[in-house]
Each structure stands twice: as structure tokens, then as C-alpha cells.
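ok so I'm stuck.
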Amino acid sequence: MPAKMVDISKKDDVIRVAVAEGFIKLREETIKAIKEGKVPKGDVLTVASIAAMLAVKKTPELIPMCHPIPITSVDVDFNINDEGVKVRCAVKSVGKTGVEMEALTGVSAALLTIWDMVKALEKDESGNYPHTRIDGIRVIEKVKTTQISSS
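replied:
not stuck anymore, here's the structure
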């Protein structure tokens, strides 16, 4: 059966919000370097935040059946704990289809960017990453609101 996009032309424009999250497990020394701004590649969380925003906007180019939609807001938050970094990405749009794929893509890009920026700190003697892993990427909230204000 040939692939095709879902026809959303008859759907009403509504406010749509999706929030996704994920976690990257890191070594204690790496977490300390992030907190102290001592990662050789630079400010990990700033770069990861920018990567998430870019990925959200590029989602239809990466996910074949995803509709291009107007993104009205992207908010990326980080929570560093003793085990690693939790990333949360909230995406908002006014349109005919949801933004959960954009939120998931944003979280994924942020997590991959964190890994890329700290990989030199995470490698073991053989060049592998036995402690590093990305877990729990999921949609934690999806909201559709029909009230669109003009302000």
C-alpha cells in the first residue's frame, strides 16, 4: 500500500500544545563539568536548547508523514540531577494537527546534542560509552484548546 499523509484540510485551527521529555544518564564527573561550565565544546545546555528549537522547526523534513505547521512557541527546560540531565520540550502551534512529533524531535535533538558535547568526558579507555544512555523519551502532555484569542 502506498504511503500518504493524512488529510487535515477539514479540521479547524485550534491551539495545540505538546510536552515531551527524555533523560540522558551521565557520569558524575561529566555532570560536574556541565554545572561548572568546563565542557571543552562549550555551554552544553545553551547549545542543546538551540538544537531542540531548530529540530522542532525541521520536524517535517525529518519525519516523512509530518505536516509542516506554524510553530508559535518552543520552550526547552533542563533539570540536572546526580544521574544526568532531564530535558523537557514544550511546543505550541495554532493549526489543524498536533505538535507531539515536534516536541519529541526537540527532546531527541537536545539529548543527542548533550551526548555529542560531552562524549569526550563519557568515553572509557576503549572509546566506548558504558555509562551513557538516553532513556524515557515520551509525550507527557498533549492539549488542544478551541479558544483562540486575538491578543
